[in-house]
Design brief:
The protein is an alpha/beta fold. It has one domain: Nucleotidyltransferase, domain 5, CATH 3.30.420. The strands form 2 sheets. A 6-stranded mixed beta sheet has the order 5-4-1-2-3-6, sandwiched between helices. A two-stranded antiparallel ribbon has the order 7-8. Strand 4, helix 3 and strand 5 form a beta-alpha-beta unit. The protein is globular. The chain starts with a strand and ends in a 19-residue tail after the last strand.
């Protein structure tokens, strides 16, 4: 099954909730509250990764949105929300699918979905509180997927790079 994913309320807009929705034959939406996003943003600042807060949180949010439906999803088409970061998001998702041992992981593409998309219409309805999301993602859920402990300090589970591979955005001088 091919699904489209849309977002209402950007991740970096920490004064409002973010809604992520997928749709095709079925639809599902999750909410990341503004409070959760502010807490996450602070954690990313504390670990020295404030520039990747939005893209990493978006990728983890997409995974948490689709994870219970992965057996039936063959293709994920995501609305372009973070231009220039598409390969990074795909890289994070591929690493998650590999770590979670997802058999036959879906292909991931980006395109402009548009306002006529069912995913967009559902995301807007939930964002405007005309409908409820199926799930509200907790801080603990997002942290458990995005951070791990290394030498007693939190680090990104899926290091972010501009090319989507394991090359960091800036050199790690702590090696």
């Amino acid at each position: 099954m091919k699904i489209e994913i849309d977002q209402s309320g950007r991740i970096e807009e920490t004064n409002r909730d973010t809604i992520l929705t997928f749709s095709n034959g079925i639809s599902y939406s999750v909410k990341i509250t503004a409070r959760t996003k502010r807490r996450l943003q602070e954690i990313y600042r504390q670990i020295g990764k404030p520039t990747v807060f939005m893209v990493n949180t978006f990728a983890i949010g997409v995974y948490l949105l689709v994870k219970n439906h992965l057996k039936s999803i063959t293709t994920i088409v995501i609305d372009i929300e973070y231009a220039g970061w598409e390969s990074v998001i795909i890289g994070i998702l591929k690493n998650i699918f590999k770590d979670k041992k997802v058999k036959n992981p879906p292909e991931v593409f980006f395109t402009l979905i548009g306002k006529k998309s069912r995913a967009h219409k559902i995301a807007i309805k939930v964002f405007r509180k005309w409908d409820n999301p199926q799930k509200v993602l907790s801080l603990a859920e997002i942290i458990s997927e995005s951070l791990r402990m290394k030498n007693g300090r939190p680090v990104l589970t899926y290091p972010v790079s501009r090319t989507g591979n394991s090359t960091p955005l800036r050199p790690n001088l702590n090696k």
